[in-house]
Amino acid sequence: MSTQSTNDQPHIAIVGGGICGPVLLLTLAKRGIPATLYERDDAIDARGHLGGMLDLDWETGQRALRENGLQDEFLKHARRDAEELKLGGKDGVVLFHHQGSKPSADVENLKNERPEIDRRVLRKLLYAALPQDSIKWGHALTSVKPLEGGQHELTFSNGLVTVADFLVGADGAHSRIRALLSPATPIYQGISGAEILLSPEVAALPENSDISNSVGKGSYFVTEDSKVMAFQRNGDGRIRAYVWMNKDIDWVLPSDPKEAKQLLLDSYADWAPWMRKFISLCDEEAMYPRPLFHLPVGHRWPHKAGVTIIGDAAHLMAPFAGAGANLAMVDALDLGLVLSEVVSKGLQGEEKEAAIAGWEEKMLARGEHWASITMLSAQGFFSPDAPHAVVAMFKQFMG
Ligand SMILES: Cc1cc2nc3c(=O)[nH]c(=O)nc-3n(C[C@H](O)[C@H](O)[C@H](O)COP(=O)(O)OP(=O)(O)OC[C@H]3O[C@@H](n4cnc5c(N)ncnc54)[C@H](O)[C@@H]3O)c2cc1C
């Protein structure tokens, strides 16, 4: 038993407080199982300006909130009208238009919807529901040492050393904990570019209504010539765009914002005027490189006692199917339910390992399914037949 165990409960350590970390802590806390969440950021808003919106699916992201009593809170913040989606090519002609739902639409309809919520708002909602003394901000894990009996010794950059009876890596794409289970490392997708944005104030100016009206209430994906501009309107009125191109791994976005802008303008020279205007006007203080990585499709590892990984740490994939955050949330819910049962029933030995290994297999099969869909979707976005290939794909997917 670890130095931090209380009341004979095992010390469950969750490393990473992005999306799946807080969902796991919440699921355990709601069922009376103590755990500790270690996050390297100093506070919830340390990188609050980053991250766009996430559309949550009924069976995965929404389920993780529903089964933890947060459906009403989600509905207060969800943007059902932001499900509006447009697709088209570089000339700005809309080839596919899916209207969002009315904010007041029947709750029953949620089963067939994917309401949007800003990542920042989702995390706030989750963290407000957590036991605050279980969250350790400013704890960057620097090393892990396996001990006897499935325990692990964790060392953090602030000097804390602690022992976990069960360790969960919720530490994202470049997980440190993954190496305890698998030699896999993230593979470059051959796609890089930038995240750029217009602040709410700039987006609202009357002279920028051409941009604002084109983007609409939700998302507009523009694809052609093996390039993508994926626009989205965030809840605070900000308009964000992911600008992606096929590039070698050594390609870098210039660190000087003016040079970066010019490079993007040159790359998108024959795209519609409002798209080029978006690049010209984008906030020079908020231009971020966005190379895309993924883990091998079907990533797996032999089950190991005392440690597992969830979310991007387990099945990192590019964002072309909108699956990553949804999977991270349902991984955390399902693991939380299994661990609650293991602890409350006092399962030990083979029974305990079989329960956790069974959940791991289910998670990895689901991850493999979505990683395959994501690969096909990425091919569509960058195919010579884009935007028509993408329109066909979305028509099939959205019925
Ligand atoms: C540009 C882009 C757009 C996306 N759009 C969508 C979308 O529309 N829909 C969707 O479903 N998904 C989307 N995703 C994917 C989604 O963001 C991820 O799948 C999701 O964030 C994974 O959650 P996570 O909790 O596993 O990891 P993360 O959210 O990355 O969280 C990991 C956390 O671990 C912490 N951490 C890392 N290392 C350490 C350490 N050593 N010690 C302590 N803490 C540590 C980090 O600070 C971070 O808070 C997108 C991804 C990208 C890159």
Describe this entry's structure for a reader:
With 399 residues, this protein is of the alpha/beta class. The protein has two domains: 2-79 and 118-186 and 296-380, FAD/NAD(P)-binding domain (3-Layer(bba) Sandwich), CATH 3.50.50; 190-291, D-Amino Acid Oxidase, Chain A, domain 2 (2-Layer Sandwich). It has helices at residues 20-30, 61-66, 71-77, 119-128, 200-204, 209-215, 257-267, 273-281, 312-315, 324-345, 349-381, 388-397, and strands at residues 12-15, 36-38, 53-55, 85-88, 94-98, 116-118, 135-136, 141-146, 152-156, 161-164, 166-169, 187-188, 191-198, 219-224, 227-233, 239-246, 288-289, 293-294, 307-309. Mean pLDDT is 94; it is low at 1-6. The chain binds flavin-adenine dinucleotide (FAD).
Short characterization:
The chain has 399 residues and is an alpha/beta fold. It folds into 2 domains: 2-79 and 118-186 and 296-380, FAD/NAD(P)-binding domain; 190-291, 2-Layer Sandwich (D-Amino Acid Oxidase, Chain A, domain 2). The chain has helices spanning 20-30, 61-66, 71-77, 119-128, 200-204, 209-215, 257-267, 273-281, 312-315, 324-345, 349-381, 388-397, and strands at 12-15, 36-38, 53-55, 85-88, 94-98, 116-118, 135-136, 141-146, 152-156, 161-164, 166-169, 187-188, 191-198, 219-224, 227-233, 239-246, 288-289, 293-294, 307-309.
Present the secondary structure layout.
Elements: E1 12-15, H1 20-30, E2 36-38, E3 53-55, H2 61-66, H3 71-77, E4 85-88, E5 94-98, E6 116-118, H4 119-128, E7 135-136, E8 141-146, E9 152-156, E10 161-164, E11 166-169, E12 187-188, E13 191-198, H5 200-204, H6 209-215, E14 219-224, E15 227-233, E16 239-246, H7 257-267, H8 273-281, E17 288-289, E18 293-294, E19 307-309, H9 312-315, H10 324-345, H11 349-381, H12 388-397
Bound molecules: flavin-adenine dinucleotide.
